[in-house]
Amino acid sequence: MSVIEKWVGVTCPDCGAPARARVLHIIAWGAIPGSAVPHHVSIVCEHLCRVTGIAARETVCLCPHCRAFMG
């Protein structure tokens, strides 16, 4: 398995402050070409809010690596 980590600037969905989102693009060796690639998203803002799961995926709609829709 291989993981590509990308950071993008976003707005915190909890407090509205500037934040950074960490997007993990996970590539499983032996996966069928064209199959869905799992992504994990977590957001941390300057007020130390932590957002993960569905709320984080809705904030970062596209993977910055593969441009796939994650919502």
TrEMBL record:
- State what protein this is by name: Uncharacterized protein
